[in-house]
Design goal:
The protein has 552 residues and is of the alpha+beta class. The protein is 30% helix and 16% strand. The chain has 3 domains: 4-170 and 360-372, Up-down Bundle (Fumarate Reductase Cytochrome B subunit), CATH 1.20.950; 182-340, no CATH class; 399-550, Sulfite Oxidase, Chain A, domain 2.
Length: 552
Amino acid sequence: MIPTAIENRISPARDTRVTARVGIALGATITLCFLTGLISHWIQHPPTWFVWPTHPVWLYRVTQGAHVISGTMTIPLLLVKLWSVYPRLFARPRLGDPLQLLERASIAILVGATIFQLTTGLLNTAKYYPWKFFFTTTHYAMAYVAIGALAVHLAVKLPIVRTALSTPLDDPTPAPAAGAAGAGDMVAAGAGESSGDDAGEPKGVDAAGERDTSAKVERGTGAKVERGAGSEVEGGISPEVGRGTSPEVEMGASAGIDTGTSAGTSRGTDAHIKTVANAAGERDGGAEGETGSGAGELKTVGAGGLKRVGAEGSKGQGTALGAPISAAGSSPESPALAAGPSPESPAPAAPAAGAGVSRRAVLVGAGLGAVVAGLAVAGQTVPYLRWLAVLAPRSGEGPQGLPVNRTAGEAGVGEMALAEGYRLMVSCGGGKRGFSRGELAGLPQYEVELPIACVEGWSASARWAGVRLRDLLGAVGEYRGGDVGFVSLETGGIYGRSVLPRRHAVDDSTLVALRLNGAELSLDHGYPCRLIAPNRPGVLQTKWLSSIEVLS
């Protein structure tokens, strides 16, 4: 539970209606990011059952672009959701409630895993790795942790989410929050039911400031009036209602009488009220009222003498007992004033802190923030949005019209790639042969337009020219099927090798490329030759080829 002082300072915009709606968008972006991330991981580390098609050639470009865009859009949505629930994250948990403990655990895991995924993923797009673990496998494992925690959190919160979504945003009534009061926290108004009558119970105060518990009210009915959650006595009051007798209220007071409720009279009965003042040791007073009668009066003897409190009783009206009597003998200006609020009095209004921010404004801001964040990186995937890609690490531009992720200098292959004795070794059908770059250029040449899409989210289309892979394999031996392995001149990188499935190997668009956009391959783009195949991540389009081998 949250202390009342803190609860009253929470902005009305920090409401479950905001949290639920932002949560839907957040769940959608996280789910999309998770699914597209699985695709990318399975392409690079394929399970035996996984099949990735060769066409359409732009499919991986779309899925990986969506992965990075949705992940980036998740960041402002997560911030808004955390803002909306932040004060309640520190509410004191109910240790005996296993459902709430499960909810708290799922929230901690979900928030931690999501922040980890977004942070490492964002740094990966910039190719910045300030950690020692291998990004790909760690990112993949934590994705399951995040999505599992999301599923548990959604299952626990589903009733609250459904209620919040069904409540209009502009409804001033607060929507139920997590950890809302249960049946034990409900308060029943202590009013007896009699035709047209309002009833309340007076409260007495003794010298120590304690409430007297000896009040009895008889209303001509056999009903009990309860105040509290399933309790006959709460706050020192034990009202009872009997049948067939006159109502009698007895109160003790040393310095005054603290009453803030009304004692109603029932139809056809007399109301006789006694007040005891132990400072003077005297009793006096009667207020009589009957159905349809005019007024009665209550007389009390206190330390300062006789004082009068007006009391009226009539059909459908309550007898007001609410004027505290002071030890000095002064009476209040109004007999209706009470030292404490009646059960029927409304709760004090919460401070208007933060009332200037509406729930709708928060939701609009969250949506705009997500859209702006997405557009700020979408241009590295969508060509006509490149001018908006102010946060994209890659602009789509570079040597020969393509960005370069890893240069020949970084790979340490410059001398080997430019050596006159370079040969591409090809093994197929039991045969093995080395090809110089001139010999490769002498084979039938084909040109295709294919996008190169990187795992960091950027992609760009280009015109590639070179030898079809299946023709090159056929020039060495009979290709009977099977995956094909590629080895780079780069020996130190984790992607110095790649495996091409058979369906890609035999595709017309798969080339051992020698030219890019009408010019000879530059060294940074893979000279003397590189692999280019449809619908594959850029890290698997091996550059600076050293050998090609058909795998069994």
